Amino acid sequence: MKLKQMLIVICVVLISTFGCGQRQGDELRIGLIGPSINHLPLSFALESAVEADEGYRVTYFNSGWEVQEAIIAGKLDAAIMPFSYVHSAVAKGYPLKIVSFLERESDGLVSSLDVSSVADLHKARIAVLKASTVELLMDELAHETGIEYDAVYFRSPNEMLAALQSGDVAAAVAYVPVLQKLPDGFQVLHWFGDTHRNHPCCDITVNEKELTKSKTDSVIKLMARIEEILPRITMDNPELKHYAKTRYGLSDSVWKKR
Asked: What is the pLDDT of residues 53-84, one digit of tens each?
């Protein structure tokens, strides 16, 4: 009788341990760069999925570099990543794959009010994220406007804007909503979205090595959810407006502008 009771206890412990562990292991671990309005459709779709406990676990990072390091280390299954970071990781042999070109461009070149045009930045120090889409966009703008600039590299937008406010750089390339949090005395000289509206800034990327069958199914379900929710990504949707203002701290004027 005692042996039977002991076996029952052991079975209960095993089921509890491995059963719960498997459920946790089947969660799709997603990394987002936050805050960035670029991935608004994905964030909006994930909000309801996480609330419904559909097996998604979201972790926020400060920059694309941090996301890249986490996903190639196997700490994430999927992430929103600049395509340039994905390409560099794949070139080094890491098993990353882009599954969706999701975002629209919301990067801008910002400077103090003393700068009247892009031409004034000739030979100036400009902050960019190394090997990122913003560096590529800035290189193109410099070529088109005929200026040369001294690129100063940072790992996160917050570090870039701190350097801009301290006067260490004359301008910086960053994205909404970080740009909108600058104090008075700064301006956006150029919106890259005006010339690259369909530019795939950051993309939904997966680590193929980490994807089990259940996690692959979760990615497919997530993409279906995004497709379902896309018709609701409109400026006149009060639900989306409330989410954007709450999540990103956008004012009514900024919401109407972008």
From this structure: 678 888 988 877 889 999 999 999 999 887 87
SS (H, E, C) the chain: CHHHHHHHHHHHHHHHHHHHHHHHHCCEEEEEECCCHHHHHHHHHHHHHHHCCCCEEEEEECCHHHHHHHHHCCCCCEEEEEHHHHHHHHHCCCCEEEEECCCCCCEEEEEECCCCCHHHHCCEEEEEECCCHHHHHHHHHHHHHCCCEEEEEECCHHHHHHHHHHCCCCEEEEECCCHHHCCCCEEEEEEHHHCCCCCCCEEEEEEHHHCCHHHHHHHHHHHHHHHHHHHHCCCCCHHHHHHHHHHHCCCHHHHHHC
Residue 20 has pLDDT above 80, yes or no: no
- pLDDT surpasses 60 at 3: no
Confidence grade of residue 2 (pLDDT, cut at 50, 70, 90) = very low
> Can you give the pLDDT at residue 5?
43
Burial of residue 112 (number of CB atoms within 10 Å: 0-12, 13-18, 19+): middle
CB distance 29 to 61 below 8 Å:
no
